[in-house]
Amino acid sequence: MNWKIEITEPHSGELGEAIKHEDHGFAMEEYSYEPGHKLEVFVHDTSDPQWHIFTDLDSGHRFKIPPQRYRHIA
N- or C-end of the chain: fewer Cβ atoms within 10 A? Predict the structure, then answer.
């Protein structure tokens, strides 16, 4: 399932933390999104109340974000 989202609060982290397996340390790379940034994403998991996991379809980066830091726009 693909969504379009808009970042509503500054958000940054490490890409490896969104990968659910024990060797995620090999994939660590920092990312950041500024408010107003719009992304088309593939939805991996939105069931956790603290973290939603997406893949940015432009960059291919998989990331996690708290649901209060973005809004689903399409």
Answer: N
